[in-house]
Amino acid sequence: MRGWDDFYPLPVPPSWVPGAAVGILSLHFIQKLLFPYFWADLRYLLKVLTYGARMEMYRLQGRVVTVLDKFVKLAEKQPHKPFLIYEGTVHTYRDVDRRSNRIAQVFLQREALKKGDTVALLMGNEPDFIHVWFGLAKLGCVVAFLNFNVRFRSLLHCVNSCEPKILVVGADLLGTLEEILPKLQKDVSVWIMAKDSTFPNVHTLLDKIEAASEDPVPVNRCSANSLKSAVLYIFTSGTTGLPKAAVISHLQILKGAAGLWAFGATSEDIIYITLPLYHSAASLLGIGGCIQLGATCVLKKKFSASQFWNDCRRYNVTVIQYIGELCRYLCNQPVKEGEKNHKVRLAIGNGVRNDVWREFLNRFGAVKICEFYGATEGNICFMNHTGKIGSVGRTNFFYKLFFPFDLIKYDFQKDEPIRNKHGWCEKVKKGEAGLLISKVNAKNPFFGYAGNKRHTEKKLLCEVFKKGDLYFNTGDLMVQDHDNFLYFWDRIGDTFRWKGENVATTEVSDVIAMLDFIQEANVYGVSVPGHEGKAGMASLILKHNASLDLEQMYKQVVTYLPSYACPLFLRVQ
To answer: What is the mean pLDDT of residues 22-31?
Structure first.
């Protein structure tokens, strides 16, 4: 009997096909061996370039499209989609848009605010933080986010440094307002999120919001002329001294808002934010990222380790934000059944230790940890898009072409970069710790700080490798390994990091030195086993014949310092 092949013989492949197949397989194995991250790097780089090309297209068209513009469009396109979920209450895109319109109308009618005026916002995590922020942005105001943990002297400094026309205070922070109200500058108009007030000359906002119109304010009030226009002030300790108001432009918000998307989040995701909104991680990456995606955000008043996974299950959370301490707190909770029973697929943040990273994955399942590096005021960002444990990100030739940076040698004794006999800085070798600096140019600008220009100038390094070049000094020591992964090493200057916050040692020393029995106070950070960052150590010299009054010292530091800045250890000489 004749078979099928007798009627339809199989075609004989050309002689070159087997050789080509072997060649392709060889190239594949060579790529895997020598360039194992090629495709991951390419996908990430294409995302970065796509987003950059979109912004460049808007620029060439003469259009300035901001995150606020995107939010307003989403409120029209998907009005009934939940934007915020807070304590079980759903706030749709339309709800948030209309309430922010009401707030804009109140200030438009009752305050002579001009486009570009600054308004300071002292509020905790709640929907009205976002309503006030968006409402003021619709008036073209620059909004200054105040850290509600900062106390008396430092808080007054923050308010005065950004020179606001108005201060808006949350109802749960009236005690803080009472502390600073007598010392506030007389030309600062104070508003509180309440219907009535016991403070003289303090305005109430809630009653006026209810009576205000939901109509949008004139478009020309919020239209931006340039992506480089200032829109926010976010306070940071930098590397020394009291908090400084970092100038945040529309461009920086757009870049921050792209973070969730770059890591693979979509409009279908539900993002859980427990970090404070006065930080750029929660406000720019979290809220901004939610708008960029058109997604939903679950906002928490304050992080709770015991309620965290219950909230994730209750609201079907798929993306969480973290700092290193948050992951450790979750791992320190008692082990329970069903800990992997959740829908979280992405965890985005920074500062998680290697051991905590591994334990988190073992206990809570296949969650992709997306570690990144960035400074609020900085012009460089790294993202760990491969999931390499311990790394804050990757770089390669092409990434460095668009976002130029270097790691340079640093003199720890002189507390300055090392320069050779020709006066130029020198790059470290791979595997060595070096100071991270990023080039300042038209594509990667540094906007500096509000107020004293000296603060901005101190963050810049001039003539680093050649005449006329300019670099931003991050104040961070990093290591780049031979696979081009980057690792955070330490911070330079008079700061240390504790509980996710930068602590300025000079500020703590000054507060302690105010005590009449202290001759000298030197504060520095010390490593604590099992904890991220460094805890505060105060080394004290007492005045002659004086004794240490621990009760008075405790009262002093808790009155004038945020809890994370209070020293945990004392050394008396």
So the answer is: 50
